Amino acid sequence: MAGLESHHQQSLNHVEIPIHGNHSMPQEGKAEDFDYSKRGQWLRAATLGANDGLVSIASLMMGVGAVKEDITAMILAGFAGLVAGACSMAIGEFVSVYTQLDIEVAQMKRDKRRKDNTANEEITESEKLPNPFQAALASALSFAVGAMIPLLAAAFIGEHKVRLGVVVAVSTLALLAFGGLGAKLGGTPVGQSCARVLVGGWMAMAITFGLTRLIGAAGL
Questions:
Q1: CA distances from 154 to 51, 132, 196, 197 (A)
Q2: Of the ranges 85-89, 129-133, 143-147, which one carries the lowest mean pLDDT score?
Q3: Is the pLDDT of residue 31 over 60?
Q4: Cα 75 from Cα 43, distance rounded (Å)
Q5: Taking a C-beta distance cutoff of 8 angstroms, is the pair 100, 130 a contact?
Q6: Percent helix, strand and coil across the chain, each rounded to 5?
Q7: CA–CA distance from 119 to each of 56, 111, 122, 130 (Å)?
Q8: Angle at 208 between CA 196 and CA 83, to 5 degrees
């Protein structure tokens, strides 16, 4: 009995209490180990579509505003560009992704003839195939979202010069936002991405405005 009591007392003296440490370190490790390339395909399509819609429509409206002060002409030109651009993006993306799908399916058939694939392997491969309809819809929607920004900015401003300035200012802020968002989601430097997108957008608007103004002044 004395031995049992002594052993019991020693067990009580050596009770181990688990201490839960800070779990932020494993999460940070997971964040650092995340493969951002997995986001590459849809991130490219979404960023390209929104940026293309914003820059195209803002430049188009600046070009119309270079020769016409009428707000109706500017808004109609922007809306026509939105519809045409969204359709063009959707059709282009559909054709491109469908071509990629045909190539991958043909390659899968060639691989299947060379070796006997299991059913599980076929299912895995089919799940990785691109979706042309989904890609087309995503491109059209992202283009429309980007195009709506300069349209809404100019829709309720009657003064011509103020309207042009607002289009440039709002487009600048949106370009910075798109560049920063794309950099964050892709895990790339924010400053470089924002600068690249912003300079490209400014160049497109300036060239469109300048050439249209030049042609309008020449009376062509």
A1: 18, 34, 25, 22
A2: 129-133
A3: no
A4: 29
A5: yes
A6: 85, 0, 15
A7: 47, 14, 5, 20
A8: 90
CA torsion through residues 165, 153, 179, 142, sign: negative
Return the number of other C-beta atoms located less than 10 Å from residue 201's C-beta: 23
Residue closest to 157 by CA, chosen among 69, 32, 83: 69
For the entire predicted model, the pTM comes to 0.72
Rounded to the nearest 5 degrees, what angle is found at the Cα of 155, between the Cα atoms of 154 and 160?
Answer: 50
Q: How far apart are CA 135 and CA 132, in angstroms?
A: 5
Q: What is the DSSP letter of 115?
A: S
For 10-59, give the DSSP string. Answer: HHHHT--------THHHHHHHHHH--GGGGHHHHHHHHHHHHHHHHHHHH
pLDDT above 70: residue 18:
no
Calpha distance 203→88 (Å, rounded): 22
The average confidence (pLDDT) of the chain is 79
**Of the candidates 180, 209, 165, 217, the residue with the CA atom closest to the CA atom of residue 64:** 209
Q: Which two tokens stand for residue 140?
A: 């059209």
Q: Are 142 and 45 in contact (CB under 8 A)?
A: yes
Query: Cα–Cα distance between 3 and 9 in angstroms, integer?
Result: 10
Residues 6+ apart with CB under 8 A from 136: 90, 91, 93, 94, 97
Written as six digits, the tokens of 70 are 């009428």
